[in-house]
Each structure stands twice: as structure tokens, then as C-alpha cells.
Amino acid sequence: MNTAPPRRDRLSALLRWLLGIRYIKFGMVGASGTVVNIAVLYLGHEYLFQSLEGPGGKPYASLALAIAVATVNNFTWNRLWTWADRLAQPPEDAAGETTPPASLGAQLAKYALASWFGSGLQYGLTLWLTHSMHYMVANVIAIVIASVSNFLANDRWTFRKR
What we know:
There is one protein chain. The protein is mostly helical and 162 residues long. The chain folds into 2 domains: 8-87, no CATH class; 101-162. It is built from 7 helices and no strands. The chain has helices spanning 7-20, 22-48, 50-53, 60-82, 84-87, 104-129, 135-158.
């Protein structure tokens, strides 16, 4: 008689394990932020800021709004899901004394700064790598490196272990 768990149970266990990995959660939040960014960019450029940007114009205002909304979206989901376990712990200082948690605004500012650093890193790496490879390949490599940088900055700084 076969006592191995059914394939569905093994697949479900694997999925739960993967979702428990913080970097996978971070990546899923980043993917949702990309969708939010694209949607806000489109709506802003085609409807909200059409009179400012004009047909065929550069989407400066729309892009700024899209980045801001996506950053807040990603911060919210990373705070509520990716690093939720760390927010549940009372923070302590080096002496083991309980300290007040960082304000939501301060945490958002740290997150935004870490995200801007990652964006700058992606931009610079893409330009540098295009000297030796196709720009699309260079951009994908830069995105992967920048996402690791963003993850580490947020893991060690924004949502550091208490």
C-alpha cells in the first residue's frame, strides 16, 4: 500500500513553504507593484494629466504619480505581509530595553529611500552592462541585482529584526 502523501498535498506543502520565504513574498509584492505602476501610469497619462502632457508628450507627471503610488502599495504589502512577523515583536535597544517602534512615516521614508537607491542602481547597472550585452538582457540582470539590494536594505534597515 502506498503511504506517500498525494501529489496535491505535496504541491500544497511546497507552495506554503515558498510563501514562507521572505524573498519570495518580497518578489510577489514587487510584481503587484509593477501592475499598480503600469495601471496608474496609463490612467494618469491617458486621462488624469492629459491636458498637461498632451498627446504624444512625455508622461512626466504620470510617471511620478505611478512611482509614488506603487511605492506606497509595495510598502504597505511588505509591511503587512513580508515583514509582518517583525512588526509584531516589541522593539528593544542594545541594552534589551523596550523602545517605541518607528513611526509609520519614518518607516515609509526609509522604504522609499531604499527603493530609490535600488532604482538608481538598476539604472546605472543597465547603462554600464549595455556596453557588453543587449540592453534587454542588461536590464533584466540589473533588475535582479537591484531587487536583491532592495530586499537587503529593507530587511536590514527598514524592517530590521528587533
